[in-house]
Design brief:
353 residues; alpha+beta; Spore Coat Polysaccharide Biosynthesis Protein SpsA, Chain A; Immunoglobulin-like; five-stranded antiparallel β-sheet; 9 helices; 19 strands; globular
Length: 353
């Protein structure tokens, strides 16, 4: 089984080296295409360091992200497809896990898993909260994190391929057409990628162009009631994630819903009632120290690592875990967070050093 992974680049990003390093350590090693429209010499310099990894490389203008991805898949072999943006990174073993699931007897066409989110400072803030097992809710909301999704080229071709006219929702549009074309989806309840979320991320905004693309998918695939709920949901999420202070967003979201997305014990707003588990990985340097900040204080929270050991201490509003066994670049550290209070702890972020 051969993976073909496209890396479209519209502008240089400092995390590009992490992206390529995360691909270089995968087993099986994928056929990687690097499609660079940035004109920035730093992209070429970074790509030079990974020349043995990159099967196809182009520096020069293109017609946009979707057009670049299509070019990459045309130019590289592989019966399983995926793509990463320059600021995304795979987790160690991601392609091995996806490949094993694709090779099982029930032969799914699409495999996807969780993503861990980082901010502009490289701090881990939680999981991609919208990810959920396959269901027809996919027709009203995107429940798949694109960097953690891999699919058979044959099923992709049957569904009509990537729509190059879309610039914000080409991933969700593809998932919907795969679903409509009876592709079989499989969900892995494990972390396959790391994703950067920033206020400037194009998939987080709600400008006119993105709203138009979202509405096209929703109107074509969801029932009238689901259409209304979906559009309201996107608008509310934009306000909660990008306009309101985190504490106010948590309070308002709690008053509007009695349920919250919880992934391995961690809520969408960082809530931890008892125990939460989150895997961490650092590229470009060893990982020996974790500093976790909690919005409602850190006195009753402890950290531990089943994989790397260490005792946690509290200082200056942080819970600090010094690992007994530092992790090498590209090695996963399993982190466990225990809340010893009756009230939920609220994780703000985890800094890695």
């Amino acid at each position: 089984m051969k993976f073909s992974i496209a890396v479209p680049i519209g502008a240089y990003h400092p995390l590009l080296a992490d992206c390529l390093e995360s691909l270089a350590i995968q087993t099986p090693r994928p056929a990687v295409s690097l499609l660079d429209a940035s004109g920035d010499p730093r992209v070429a310099e970074t790509a030079d360091r990974y020349r043995e990894l990159i099967a196809y490389r182009r520096h020069g203008p293109d017609k946009g992200q979707s057009d670049a991805i299509l070019e990459g898949w045309r130019e590289t072999p592989g019966d399983v497809l995926g793509w990463l943006n320059a600021d995304d990174a795979l987790y160690p073993g991601a392609l091995k896990a996806a490949g094993e699931r694709l090779g099982e007897d029930d032969a799914p066409d699409v495999v996807y898993g969780h993503s861990v989110i980082v901010n502009d400072s490289g701090e881990v803030t939680g999981y991609h909260w919208a990810v959920a097992p396959p269901s027809d809710y996919l027709l009203a909301g995107d429940i798949i994190s694109q960097p953690s999704c891999f699919f058979r080229r044959a099923a992709y071709d049957r569904a009509g391929g990537l729509d190059a006219s879309l610039h914000y929702t080409m991933d969700w549009d593809l998932w919907v057409r795969l679903w409509r074309n009876s592709a079989k989806f499989a969900f892995l309840d494990e972390t396959l990628s790391r994703v950067l979320w920033t206020p400037d991320a194009k998939t987080g905004g709600l400008g006119r162009a993105r709203r138009k693309e979202l509405n096209r998918i929703i109107n074509q695939n969801a029932s009238p009631m689901r259409q209304l709920k979906s559009k309201i949901g996107f608008a509310l999420n934009y306000g909660f994630e990008y306009l309101l202070p985190p504490q106010l967003a948590r309070r308002l979201r709690g008053t509007m819903s009695n349920t919250t997305a919880v992934i391995h014990g961690l809520g969408r707003d960082g809530e931890i009632s008892n125990t939460a588990d989150i895997p961490l990985v650092r590229y470009g340097g060893d990982l020996s120290r974790l500093e976790a900040c909690f919005a409602n204080g850190a006195d009753v929270v402890s950290l531990s690592s089943p994989s790397h050991g260490g005792d946690s201490t509290s200082a200056d509003g942080m819970v600090i875990l010094a690992l007994d066994k530092p992790a090498k670049s590209g090695e996963t550290v399993d982190l466990r967070i225990e809340n010893n209070s009756a009230a939920p702890a609220i994780l703000s972020h985890i800094a890695l050093s």
